[in-house]
Amino acid sequence: MNIHEYQAKAVLKDFGVPVPTGYPVLAAGEAGSAAAQLGGPIWVVKAQIHAGGRGKGSFKEAAAGEKGGVRLAKSAAEAEAFVHQMLGNTLVTVQTGPAGKQVNRLYIEEGSAIEKEFYLSMLVDRATARVAFVVSTEGGMNIEDVAHDTPEKIVTFSVDPATGILPQHGRRVADALKLSGDLAKQAERLVARLYAAFVAKDMSMLEINPLIVTKDGQLRCLDAKIAFDGNAIYRHPDIAALRDETEEDAKEIEASKYDLNYITLDGTIGCMVNGAGLAMATMDIIKLYGAAPANFLDVGGGATKEKVTAAFKIITADPAVKGILVNIFGGIMRCDVIAEGVIAAVRDVGLAVPLVVRLEGTNVDLGKTIIRESGLNVIPADDLDDAAQKIVAAVGGTAASGAAASQGAH
């Protein structure tokens, strides 16, 4: 689960992490009060969306002006004008895609006199099963470019959970950032507090970009991006309350209610599969035969008829879907349950696009019988390769050329 910058800073502030003072603005009428409380002389107005690159982004609407999603105002009136321009308009960044995201929340923050900018992040390193720090002197930049062009400027290390955070970790960050004296001591305190917040709140990622040194010699987190482990949200009702569903795909929200692993993609063939590995293979073979998947959907190994029905409805709710491929290998999952769920969903919502079903495994014959006797216009498939060719052909794709490529590869 992701949260907005202003929410992330509030979480960090509770752990003693130094952040600039700011106020969220959820309605244009709140702008004047927020700007007045900060007092100036510089105000920073920031669009709050779940995407990076806001400063270099652009708004679709002419009323929003030509500037990006992060603007410096030199008066309270100018800050208020920026709010009126940005709120409710669509911001396009390198991470939103061409559709952009509507700005429903803004953040007005006090300006900071910046002396230096750094990069600091924390994440769960699956290779070591530890919390890892990533630190660089190249803050405020695209860290991927830094990693590619000048990897020597990035320092990484992990923290042993048996010891937890130690002073040596803070000193390592200070050394990596070339900080000394009081700034090095501040870095030690900051690292300890960030680690405490990361562990206590079950974060999966925490990014500070930039971490700055102000002209008066203070370390401060100028931006903050936090992602939380979705499997641990139940332990943190305060964090769950921060969820902004307007930033999420409606179909993904609906899927989460049924414990379905669903991700919207850009293609035209809807997929319903059991098992993440099989789902990935299904998407790959659809691409091989010249089409593209409209979603990733893993119904899991123990799906019920109700869960399958919900999954099918979510797929058909996507107007981009021109055909559906159901690919089930029944181990724990029973093919007859899948068949009953598909039939129930089709009878409930109708079937306006081609449907190819491939079943294999537990109760496969019963599942095929149920579908065959349902009277539905379903295209049966013998195996995954056959299923992919049939669904691509059914939506007007290029399965034949894909088949030739597949044979050539062998």
Automatic annotation (TrEMBL):
Its UniProt pathway annotation is: One-carbon metabolism; formaldehyde assimilation via serine pathway; Carbohydrate metabolism; tricarboxylic acid cycle; succinate from succinyl-CoA (ligase route): step 1/1
Q: Which UniProt keywords apply?
A: ATP-binding, Ligase, Magnesium, Metal-binding, Nucleotide-binding, Tricarboxylic acid cycle
The record's top EC class is: ligase
User: What Pfam families does the record point to?
Assistant: ATP-grasp_2, Ligase_CoA
**EC number(s) for this protein?**
6.2.1.5
Q: What does the entry give for GO biological process?
A: succinyl-CoA metabolic process; tricarboxylic acid cycle
Catalytic reaction equation(s): (S)-malate + ATP + CoA = (S)-malyl-CoA + ADP + phosphate; succinate + ATP + CoA = succinyl-CoA + ADP + phosphate; GTP + succinate + CoA = succinyl-CoA + GDP + phosphate
Tell me which family the UniProt entry assigns to this protein: Belongs to the succinate/malate CoA ligase beta subunit family.
Q: Which NCBIfam families match?
A: PRK00696.1, sucCoAbeta
Protein's job = Succinyl-CoA synthetase functions in the citric acid cycle (TCA), coupling the hydrolysis of succinyl-CoA to the synthesis of either ATP or GTP and thus represents the only step of substrate-level phosphorylation in the TCA. The beta subunit provides nucleotide specificity of the enzyme and binds the substrate succinate, while the binding sites for coenzyme A and phosphate are found in the alpha subunit.
Q: What is this protein called?
A: Succinate--CoA ligase [ADP-forming] subunit beta
Query: Which organism does this sequence originate in?
Result: Prosthecodimorpha hirschii
What's the encoding gene here? sucC
